[in-house]
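Query structure, 355 tokens:
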């Protein structure tokens, strides 16, 4: 491996906030250290924090892992280049709450495990709240599988970066009356993001705190599935007011929901849970909207909510159109079908609790 070859690999790492130029062109490759069994690349960032720093580090790691021969290790380090002022701490760590100070309610949408429809519920709830007249934003914090760009038909858009008081911020994408932000906007198509724990946490915080949200009634945060350090860090680093937990009705889901509930009740987190959303509560065929088939059993959601001492905030049926709408980028909550109205009811229930 030569330095030239590594530079070629890094040509693929592009900065979407700066005209999609590569980190090589932007002069951000500070040093390259090639050893027999591995390569270490150091990226340089200016003191002024770069909202995409975590994304670029992740992309550089991914590019190296992809291109290096098997058995070669790779690491990406960072250094902060001083312009003139004395050295300051890491450029992503000094995010403050300035950009979220005009948001009335910051609510986490969580689930004990993946695949229960958390993102579907979050996106539709955001659209439904907007239909009810609220000012709404949604931050997609599901760094491992960001689905908001696809579900809202905004995947070909990239948020603009703007500078305020010498700091760089992102403008959210506006569509369907909602302000959207997702790490997915910065990923190249088909490229998986590789994160280490602390990196994922920083990227998440940037997607929430380094965004010009303006005045909002609700900011929903589509949290990563499951419960772990990343969640605890997210809840403590962002002024989240409380949470909504999404589940499916099967009895086997109870243990996962319990984990989610316990996380928010953990004394170090200690946030209220506004309720449980029972997704896929029953199946309704598109052509027979009055028919309900309880394929996962009836009453699972209410039983879980009772056992855990939380409210059942709403029930959403399984309807083919909910999935189709998610895939086509036009959320079901925009329509007037029974499933659309179920999301409106859910949004009303949340708003009534908080307003
Ligand atoms: P999660 O965020 O929990 O991983 P998603 O929201 O991505 O789950 O949903 C997983 C899949 O299930 C998606 O294809 C989505 O369209 C589909 N889905 C979710 N909820 C419903 C529903 N109520 N009816 C039909 N399909 C649904």
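Result returned for the query:
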């Amino acid at each position: 491996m030569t330095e030239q070859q590594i530079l070629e690999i890094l040509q693929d790492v592009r900065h979407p906030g700066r005209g999609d130029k590569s980190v090589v062109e932007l002069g951000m490759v500070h040093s390259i250290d090639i050893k027999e069994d591995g390569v270490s690349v150091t990226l340089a960032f200016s003191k002024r924090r770069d909202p995409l720093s975590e994304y670029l580090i992740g992309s550089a790691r991914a590019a190296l892992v992809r291109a290096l021969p098997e058995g070669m290790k790779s690491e990406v380090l960072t250094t902060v280049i001083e312009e003139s002022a004395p050295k300051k701490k890491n450029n992503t760590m000094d995010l403050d709450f300035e950009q979220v100070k005009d948001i009335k309610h910051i609510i986490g949408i969580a689930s004990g495990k993946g695949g229960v429809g958390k993102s579907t519920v979050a996106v539709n709830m955001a659209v439904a709240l907007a239909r009810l007249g609220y000012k709404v934003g949604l931050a997609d914090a599901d760094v491992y599988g960001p689905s908001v760009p696809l579900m809202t038909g905004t995947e070909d858009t990239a948020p603009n970066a703007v500078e305020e008081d010498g700091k760089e911020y992102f403008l959210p994408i506006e569509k369907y009356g909602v302000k959207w932000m997702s790490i997915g906007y910065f990923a190249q198509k088909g490229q998986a993001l590789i994160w280490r724990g602390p990196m994922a946490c920083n990227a998440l915080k940037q997607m929430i705190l380094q965004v010009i949200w303006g005045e909002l009634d609700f900011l929903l945060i589509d949290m990563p599935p499951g419960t772990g350090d990343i969640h605890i860090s997210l809840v403590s680093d962002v002024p989240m007011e409380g949470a909504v937990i999404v589940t499916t009705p099967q009895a086997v889901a109870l243990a996962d929901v319990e984990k989610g509930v316990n996380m928010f009740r953990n004394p170090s987190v200690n946030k209220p849970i506004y309720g449980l959303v029972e997704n896929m509560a029953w199946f309704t065929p598109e052509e027979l909207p009055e028919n309900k088939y309880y394929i996962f059993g009836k009453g699972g959601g209410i039983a879980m909510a009772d056992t855990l001492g939380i409210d059942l905030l709403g029930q959403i049926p399984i309807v083919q159109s909910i999935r189709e709408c998610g895939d086509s980028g036009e959320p079901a909550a925009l329509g007037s079908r029974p499933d659309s109205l179920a999301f409106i009811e859910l949004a009303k229930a949340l708003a009534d609790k908080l307003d």
